[in-house]
Amino acid sequence: GGGRRRRRGRRSGGGGSGGNGGDSSSVEEKMAQYSRALDDYYDGGGSGGGNSSSSSSGAPCLVIDGDALRYVLNNHRSSTTFITAACRAPAVVCARCSPTQKAEVVKLLRSHTRAQVAAIGDGGNDVSMILAASVGIGVVGKEGQQASLASDYSITTFAHIQRLLLWHGRHSYRRSALLAQFVIHRGVVMSMAQAAFSAVANYAAISLYSGTVLVYWTTIYNMVPVFLLAVDTDATSAAVADFPELYSDVQSGGTLSATSAVVTMLVSVWQGVVILLLAVMLGDGLLDRLMTVTLTALVLAELANIAMLTSHWTRVMTAGLLLSVAAFVASSLLMHSTFPFAFFGTAAFYADAAACTAAALLPVYVAHRLRRRFAPSAAEKLAQRAACGGGGGIGLPLRSRFA
Predict the structure, then answer these.
(1) How far apart are CA 137 and CA 155, in angstroms?
(2) Phi, psi angle pair for 56, to nearest 5°
(3) 3-state SS class at 121
(4) β-pair partners for 136
(5) Which of 142, 222, 296, 346 is most open to solvent, judged by the fewest CB atoms within 10 Å of its CB?
(6) Per-residue pLDDT of the chain (403 residues; tens, 9 = 90+)
(7) Nearest by Cα to 104 from 123, 78, 137
(8) Cβ proximity of 122 and 143 under 8 Å
(9) CA angle at residue 62 from 48 to 19, to 5 degrees?
(10) How many whole angstroms from its chain centre is CA 106?
(11) Burial class, 250, CB count within 10 angstroms (exposed 0-12 / middle 13-18 / buried 19+)
(12) Helix spans in 310-377 (H)
């Protein structure tokens, strides 16, 4: 073995610059051939494999060894050609690579695609690659725990990757996105109500809500919805394993993007301003009654927004929303100095609160139903398919991997 390595070293190093130049031209020629092969495959409709279940089933794979990779990484033009072709390939195999080369490939992929890159390894030679990736995953194996200790997530077998990504990763992203939208809405809607009140009151130095009410708003009234968002699931673990297409919603980043943030801001502005202005139009001019009606409408609208975001209704979800309403009613009855107790039992209170809540929620609900009807997510399509007995739905491009 040692003799073969020495002969290979003399053969690759012999000839000085002429030998290296021949190797480099061969590498560039092979990369050009592979790029043309990909162009021919995709330009031909992607039917090279004869299998219609996947558009890239017949596409040629890319295999590169450590010697060729060393030249590619040291040459800017070749590295650009390599990473462009690698991103189009259905699979890429980098064989006989050093730990440094593994890390360089990860860095090149991150800089070229601007995407989140995950690196999975089980040995000490994978530590550099794991540290260079956006997310490092270490597998505890026979080669020790060096990769596991250097990683962000540690698993015992490689088969756990599927559940880690498709189940835990997908739901972690979704819950974080919904929680971020909820926090933005909770703060902006109250601020817009106060801003609208200041405009109506000629910008007088008067606060519509006392400090105690603001504390209750962020804690007692909206504490349970945070936990409800954390336990809500839009698909079961079996569904995400059978339908990997559900992960496409996470890859697109639509749930947590600039567009979703702008939509959340617009909904918050609309609901806060409409509730305040309509309460002023329907009220009798008393400040304490105005505060009571608007706060009641804000709490009900916030809980209704959570209900619209809920994908899977359970007893816990229903009990949580009812508990929030009960907490609001109990706190209102206990704070006699803030809330007009006699006003709660009047028909004017219920009529004004219902009108303000309906006006704030109606456009949001209509937009929510239209989106689900004409642009549903993959999970919503799957739910519609299940509701139709497994054969209905609107344009279901979902395919079970066991079918």
Answers:
(1) 7
(2) -115, 20
(3) strand
(4) 119
(5) 142
(6) 334 333 333 333 333 333 333 466 777 788 888 888 888 887 776 544 433 334 445 778 889 888 888 888 888 888 888 888 888 888 899 988 999 999 999 999 999 988 889 999 998 899 999 999 999 999 997 777 889 999 999 999 999 998 998 889 888 888 888 888 999 999 999 999 999 999 998 888 888 888 888 888 988 888 888 888 888 888 888 888 888 888 877 777 777 888 889 999 999 999 999 999 999 999 877 888 898 899 999 999 999 999 888 888 888 888 989 999 998 888 888 877 777 766 777 888 899 999 999 999 999 999 999 988 888 888 888 877 777 765 443 344 444 433 3
(7) 78
(8) yes
(9) 130
(10) 22
(11) buried
(12) 315-334, 347-374
H or E stretch covering 138: strand 135-139
Structural contact between residues 376 and 248, judged by C-beta atoms closer than 8 angstroms: no
Return d(Cα 177, Cα 182) in angstroms, integer.
Answer: 9
Residue bearing tokens 């990860």: 106
Alpha-carbon span 152 to 170, nearest angstrom: 16
What is the token pair recorded at 204?
Answer: 């007088």
Beta-carbon-side half-sphere exposure of residue 144 (alpha carbons within 13 Å): 9
CB of 229 within 8 A of CB of 309? yes
The Cα 121–Cα 117 span in angstroms is 13
Taking a C-beta distance cutoff of 8 angstroms, is the pair 246, 235 a contact?
yes
Q: Which two tokens stand for residue 26?
A: 């061969």
Q: Which residue has the tokens 């939509």?
A: 263
Structure tokens at 402: 């066991």
Judge whether 400 and 382 are in contact, CB under 8 Å.
Answer: no
